[in-house]
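Priority: medium. Attachment 1 of 2:
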């Protein structure tokens, strides 16, 4: 199974009231980050079996924008196991429910998203992999074998690659 981890994009400052924080939306920078990640995944011609999102607004927005960019809007599913306070056992149960799927995208929050990524890859909750807002990582998981981190890109790298792909560095030539 290919598992893509995506931490929700930028949503400004956290609210002190948990109920209001759940309704916090992406800011303009977060909307832009989401589009860039989506276009980057579209360039990879990524075909997902499911896009799993935390129920919090900012994660659902991130998932929706990315899904729109890759033309897979109908694949977004909200999952309680991706809430910020979710634990690793809930995450493993989520993976078990989707084990028949080949490729999934998981959109969530910290601290849970970073913990899930690190524990899946290292077996430990220590933060060996830093996972910023708008970062994306690919992990391959084959049954009971340890998961393998294929790549992890912070938002600055995703943006740089997407911008480079949008403008070719090769000089244009005219053929006759």
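Attachment 2 of 2:
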């Amino acid at each position: 199974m290919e598992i893509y981890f995506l931490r929700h994009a930028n949503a400004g400052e956290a609210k002190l009231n948990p109920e209001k924080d759940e309704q916090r939306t992406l800011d303009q920078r977060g909307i832009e980050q989401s589009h860039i990640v989506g276009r980057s995944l579209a360039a990879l011609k990524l075909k997902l079996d499911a896009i799993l999102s935390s129920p919090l607004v900012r994660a659902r927005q991130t998932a929706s924008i990315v899904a729109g960019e890759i033309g897979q809007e109908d694949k977004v599913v909200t999952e309680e196991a991706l809430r910020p306070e979710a634990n690793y056992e809930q995450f493993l149960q989520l993976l078990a429910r989707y084990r028949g799927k080949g490729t999934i995208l998981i959109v969530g929050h910290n601290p849970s998203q970073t913990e899930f990524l690190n524990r899946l890859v290292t077996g430990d909750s220590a933060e060996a992999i830093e996972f910023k807002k708008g970062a994306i990582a690919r992990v391959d998981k084959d049954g009971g074998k340890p998961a393998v981190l294929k790549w992890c890109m912070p938002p600055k790298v995703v943006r740089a690659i997407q911008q480079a792909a949008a403008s070719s560095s090769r000089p244009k030539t005219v053929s006759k």
